[in-house]
Amino acid sequence: MSSISTISLPTRFSGSNLLETSLLPNQNSLRFRVASFPATSRSNVAVHVRDNGTSFSSAGGVRRTRISAVAKETGTSVSTDSSFAHVQQAPEDPILGITVAYNKDPNPAKVNLGVGAYRTEEGKPLVLNVVRKAEQKLLADKSRNKEYLGITGIPDFNKLSAQLILGSDCLAIAEKRVVTVQCLSGTGSLRVGAEFLATHYGGEKIIYVPSPTWGNHLKIFPLGGIQTRTYRYFDPKTKGLDYEGMIEDLRAAPSGAVVLLHACAHNPTGVDPTQEQWEGIRRVIREEKHLLPFFDSAYQGFASGSLDTDAWAVRQFVNDGGEVFLAQSYAKNMGLYGERVGALSAIVKGADVATRVESQLKLVIRPMYSSPPTHGAAIVSLILADKDLYEEWKVELKGMADRIISMRHQLFDALKERKTPGNWDHILNQIGMFTFTGLNKQQVEYMTKEYHIYMTLDGRISMAGLSSRTVPQLADAIHSAVVNFSS
């Protein structure tokens, strides 16, 4: 063994049988001489501890592996001389972390039902044919360049996006009461909206989100400066909408607060209000509480297969003449996940107000990301503007929606065939990419361990990740989990 390294540790570690100690003058620490592992080439290197004993820092470049050995014995985290030694390891994103675990699993039969991305019957990512055609047209256009876009993005994209969700005959568009800005998919649209509202909204700067909701909602709005509260939405007993609870909570909200509404295909539950229920919700928001609706439209056309059907709720709120905020994403319905294409629209009272709102949205965007990327929005613009491409897109979009609906029926039939305990009607009644199965954490963990099925711990599964080949495996896993572990 070569020469011994010298380290400093808090007095609470003085009982270690691995080290010899001596009191350091005027310090609440002891000097330990390590006798159990070889020193580095730099002997007698001092290693200091923060007063609270939570982290080490090397004063002389001792190898990280040597410090780590000491830390393991003392239960203390270690780092080198860094201004960021205090930074804690963040947990994996609960959804994206599923893919990390899935990728580490060597089992060839593994199935990823966690992340919300469409897959083909063969389990492969899908690029729509219409998207490939649009890209080829863009590449063939030699007049195109890679210059910066304006702060609000491609004007045609903004115009066409508003028409897609609000309808080409929308009175608010005709009256120039709609301002639309290109943003970074749904997340970016929500964040820009949150920061604008935090600065400029004249009502209560509180947003009510459904319980449960997409996990990112609970991060986007507080970080954007808007306090977040919840309203009841999902009824675990019926696995449907808790309509009475939702109405009661909205009535209890302070007048002028903001309320987040999923336009269709609620994530994670797949539970949407009926048109009659939507009308009741609208009356409470508009007539009783004067709340500001903020719609998140991530699945237009992807839920029912019809662009107009999936925009119905949004249009009811816009057509009543009230103000609305609206976030759109083209990740799902055009498969442009990685292109980050979205839009934020504000429907306000007066063209002059819309002009001023747009000017302030620019001030939010400019220091955030300056201007949006071109390619994905150019694809969307071309598809929405070209009649033939638009019609082809609608056919492909309905094909994706129909395949997901087929997966629901196949899974329901497979569970019925196995006589799986419980009522599984909710698999058919829910809509869109996700099914909220009602499985608990213990059951989900069992399915992952025994059947290599990867899904969120709250029991949400992505129907878009299923195929006719994997439905039997999932049905077997659910059946076994339910039989072995009560919910």
Automatic annotation (TrEMBL):
Top EC class of this enzyme: transferase
Cofactor(s) needed for function: pyridoxal 5'-phosphate
InterPro entries xref list: Aminotransferase_I/II_large, Asp_trans, NHTrfase_class1_PyrdxlP-BS, PyrdxlP-dep_Trfase, PyrdxlP-dep_Trfase_major, PyrdxlP-dep_Trfase_small
Matches recorded under PROSITE patterns: AA_TRANSFER_CLASS_1
GO MF terms held by the record: L-aspartate:2-oxoglutarate aminotransferase activity
Domain Aminotransferase class I/classII large: 110-478
Reaction catalyzed: L-aspartate + 2-oxoglutarate = oxaloacetate + L-glutamate
Pfam families for this protein: Aminotran_1_2 (PF00155)
Subunit (UniProt): Homodimer.
Name of protein: Aspartate aminotransferase
Organism of origin: Riccia fluitans
